[in-house]
Amino acid sequence: TVSSQDSPANGPRGLFVGDIVTNLQDCPVYSVEDWNSCLGDISVKSQVGYCISSATLQQLSFPARVYRRLDGTVECCSNNSLTDICFSYSNNLDSHLYACLPARKVVEASKVCRTNMDCQKDIVPSFCVTPSLENQTRLIRVKHPPHIDMLYVGHPMHLQYTVSLSSFVPRQNFLSIDLPVVIETFCKYLISLSGALAVINAVPCFALDGQWILNSFLEATLSSLIVEKQNRELVGFLILLAGSALLAANVALGLWMVTAR
């Protein structure tokens, strides 16, 4: 991984160069395509919740004032808190309950869920608590072992735009993680340059292969129409003159545009 300087993934518990990302929430990541696909699914689907026992919920939660944000979502934690997040949950009596909980303790020791039914596999009574965040904002758990999981709060696309990943993992420490990208880019430029030179070389212009291609073409097509060889050579000369002038004009225009910037 490589994160840009202003990336929200930066920080002491964020992503570092060379980290291997294995999961986004419960979505496995094996390649760059998986990373983009997982982020797309997370941004489209609703925020997942986390299973937490009722005893742990009572132990971690503390009284907080509940109020609504401008977009209609509910907040129950202090705006200055960097570790606590407002979670919503429901029980048999009330479907709109809120608790301010430490995000890392809730996420790391829990499995993801959508409803309370997803958490009722154990005998211990549990709830599915869902982060109460602003619209389009998600709480995303990024696994990159052996480091501690990164918890990201924000729009999923910000991660996609500010974090660069590679599908390749270097087997030796002295190999750069950017080596496959550098080789791929070099090959693309080499193919593009070779193709461009081949096209330019085929232009009917003096001293290029296009001159001999044009002469062969005229001999094959105009021999019956223009019997005199001198006349055919004159036609070829005029075409070569026009092609050379056009090529020179294009080169001059390109140099002028580069130097004028």
UniProtKB/TrEMBL annotation:
For whether the record's keyword set contains Transcription regulation, the answer is no
A GO cellular component annotated for this chain's UniProt record is: membrane
EC assignment: 3.4.24.85
The entry's localization annotation reads: Endomembrane system
Main enzyme class: hydrolase
Q: Where is the Peptidase M50 domain?
A: 148-241
Q: Which InterPro entries match?
A: MBTPS2, Peptidase_M50
**Function text:** Zinc metalloprotease that mediates intramembrane proteolysis of proteins such as ATF6, ATF6B, SREBF1/SREBP1 and SREBF2/SREBP2. Catalyzes the second step in the proteolytic activation of the sterol regulatory element-binding proteins (SREBPs) SREBF1/SREBP1 and SREBF2/SREBP2: cleaves SREBPs within the first transmembrane segment, thereby releasing the N-terminal segment with a portion of the transmembrane segment attached. Mature N-terminal SREBP fragments shuttle to the nucleus and activate gene transcription.
Q: What is this protein called?
A: Membrane-bound transcription factor site-2 protease
State the organism named in the record.
Eurystomus gularis
Q: Which gene encodes it?
A: Mbtps2
